[in-house]
């Protein structure tokens, strides 16, 4: 029997690439060079499945190109705001993603950025590396205490809850959160967390705010007004998507000291980061590392592969994106 023809848009962990090779007629991306628009059109016309990932820039006309062959987009990643779900469905494509397996590692990075921003670890490292450290003194690089502080969470899904767990059980933090729907009392009780009605209420009540809501919304959830509601001593942590924050408004708030700091793993136009944001000392910047551990990346690849196997076996893939 002919094997389904798959193409993978970026390099994946070796063990998963080996599994794909055994299972499918697969074209891998050995060079790891991102696909351009023409490569996506060609992939959609020549392969039964395309296995894209979160940093891919899929052009709108790929979905409507003549003679599209692709029936499955098995995304490597939980976020799928880089895929036009409506256009994919209209083109007869099934879309899947990889939820659940990156929850812990993403919450770990969020906690790391929170600690780094609060305790000025990035700034301190720069001081040490540039030979500008003159030694211990009682007033040197004073930061904000994390233990016992209030953490506000925007988006109380899997990753938001994992962050609450770390903050509450690890650091004795009080947790408040905002979520689009009402969160069950027994879930909130696990971290003694209180659901508030609005983003503004969470911003105002918190010493640290961590974002765990989906990207791809019409407007950023954290806009100038939301930032204005934060305490001047507050820190904003974003491991969700760059477009959930108005980056220009955030840069201004940090520059003018209207908030104390930020820890960012995601950006509006990755991998480009505005020079005036990079110039600030009170922001910790990471290159979208949330899921970057071998265990997690293998789990993501295996989940995307499982989705493809189920699809080509004629079963419903376990991680269908409904749109
Ligand atoms: C995802 O899967 O959406 C993450 O951003 C990758 O780390």
Characterization of the model:
The chain is an alpha/beta fold. The chain has two domains: 5-101 and 294-312, NAD(P)-binding Rossmann-like Domain (Rossmann fold); 103-285, Rossmann fold (3-Layer(aba) Sandwich), CATH 3.40.50.720. 37% of the residues lie in helices and 13% in strands. It is built from 13 helices and twelve strands. A seven-stranded parallel sheet has the order 8-7-6-9-10-11-12, sandwiched between helices. Strands 2-1-3-4-5 form a five-stranded parallel sheet, with helices on both faces. β11 (261-264), α12 (275-278) and β12 form a beta-alpha-beta unit. α1 packs parallel to α13 and α5 (103-119) crosses α7. The longest helix has 19 residues, at 294-312. (2R)-2,3-dihydroxypropanoic acid (DGY) is lined by residues 54, 77-79, 102, 290-291.
**Main sheet: which strands, in order across?**
8-7-6-9-10-11-12
Ranges where pLDDT stays below 50 over 5 or more residues in a row are none
> Can you identify the CATH class of the largest domain?
Alpha Beta
Shape: globular
Q: Could you give the count of β-strands?
A: 12
Note the run of SSEs as H and E: EHEHEHEHEHHEHEHEHEHEHEHEH
Can you give the helix content as a percent range?
Answer: 25-40%
* C-alpha termini separation: 33 Å
Bound ligands, named by name, code or SMILES: (2R)-2,3-dihydroxypropanoic acid
Structural class: alpha/beta
Give the DSSP E fraction (strand runs of 2 or more residues): 5-15%
Q: What is the mean predicted local confidence, pLDDT?
A: 98
Radius of gyration: 21 Å
| Biggest β-sheet strands, sense, barrel | 7 strands, parallel
- At the fourth CATH level, what is the homologous superfamily of the largest domain? NAD(P)-binding Rossmann-like Domain
